[in-house]
Each structure stands twice: as structure tokens, then as C-alpha cells.
């Protein structure tokens, strides 16, 4: 949920800004580029939550980490590994999610535009 709360509004804002700058609606490839940036940014800022989730999922059953307390898991990582621990794997995550945002949101926008066009023609 936190990832989506960052990604989708940012994607829409980037498309609106690009559209305003060129004075017409963005093309699907431009939407895909906006999706890549939005996904990459969302991936970066939510990495600590992903680290905590992974720690909780991999924790030994019955341990205090396995209880599912995200704030406690974040605090443990911070104490033991500092900022680097909270952002472990951030660059591969940004890369993968940016690519996914490019493909998924670009394809979504292309499909949306095609369906709008079909709807206009059938009216």
C-alpha cells in the first residue's frame, strides 16, 4: 500500500506535467517513462519497509522479529546496520521496479487509450 500511495499519484502528476509542457496529452511511451520514474522513486522511498517485511518473513518462528512489528524490525536494522541496512538492495530494487513501471504503466496507458478509441468509434 505505501508503494502504491507514492507510485500512482506521482505517475499521474508526472504525466500531467509533461502534458502541460508539450501542450497535449502524453503518448504511451511518455507515460511509460513517467511510470519508470514514479516506480523507481517509490521503490527507493519504500525500501526500508521492504527490508522490514523481509526480515519479518525470514525471522525464526517465535522470535520477537517474527511477531510482525514493522517499527521494531526497522529499529533493529537501524541499530545493527544503520542507514545502509535500511536501504539494503535499493539499487537492484529501483532498477527492477523502474523497468516494471515502464512496461506495466506504459502498457496500461496504451490499452486505456485503445479502449477509449474503440468506445468513441462505437458511439
Uncertain runs with pLDDT below 50, 5 residues or more? Answer: none
Strand content: under 5%
The major β-sheet equals: none
| Count of domain modules | 1
What is the overall number of helices?
A: 5
Any idea what the radius of gyration is? 19 Å
Which structural category fits the helices and strands? mainly alpha
SSE order: HHHHH
User: What portion of residues is helical?
Assistant: over 70%
- Span between termini: 37 Å
Report the mean per-residue pLDDT as an integer: 95
Number of strand segments: 0
The backbone outline, from C-alpha atoms, is: elongated
Protein name: Mitochondrial S-adenosylmethionine carrier protein
Catalytic activity: S-adenosyl-L-homocysteine(out) + S-adenosyl-L-methionine(in) = S-adenosyl-L-homocysteine(in) + S-adenosyl-L-methionine(out)
Subcellular location: Membrane
Main location: membrane
Provide a brief overview of the structure.
Its main location: membrane. The protein has 123 residues and is an all-alpha fold.
Q: Can you characterise this structure?
A:
It is built from 5 helices and no strands. With 123 residues, the protein is mostly helical. The chain has one domain. Helix 1 runs antiparallel to helix 2 and helix 3 packs across helix 4. The radius of gyration is 19 Å and the shape is elongated.
What attributes characterize this protein structure?
123 residues, mainly alpha
Helix-strand layout with pairing:
Blueprint: H1 2-22, H2 28-45, H3 47-58, H4 70-86, H5 90-122
Helix pairs in contact: 1-2, 2-5, 3-4
Amino acid at each position: 500500500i505505501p508503494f502504491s500511495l507514492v507510485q500512482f499519484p506521482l505517475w499521474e502528476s508526472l504525466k500531467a506535467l509533461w502534458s502541460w509542457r508539450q501542450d497535449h496529452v502524453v503518448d504511451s511511451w511518455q507515460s511509460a517513462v513517467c511510470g519508470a520514474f514514479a516506480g523507481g522513486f517509490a521503490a527507493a522511498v519504500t525500501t526500508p519497509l521492504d527490508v522490514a517485511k523481509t526480515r519479518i518473513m525470514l525471522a525464526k518462528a517465535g522470535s520477537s522479529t517474527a511477531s510482525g512489528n514493522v517499527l521494531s524490525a526497522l529499529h533493529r536494522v537501524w541499530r545493527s546496520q544503520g542507514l545502509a541496512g535500511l536501504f539494503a538492495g535499493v539499487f537492484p530494487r529501483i532498477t527492477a521496479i523502474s523497468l516494471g513501471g515502464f512496461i506495466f504503466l506504459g502498457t496500461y496507458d496504451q490499452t486505456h487509450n485503445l479502449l477509449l478509441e474503440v468506445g468513441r468509434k462505437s458511439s
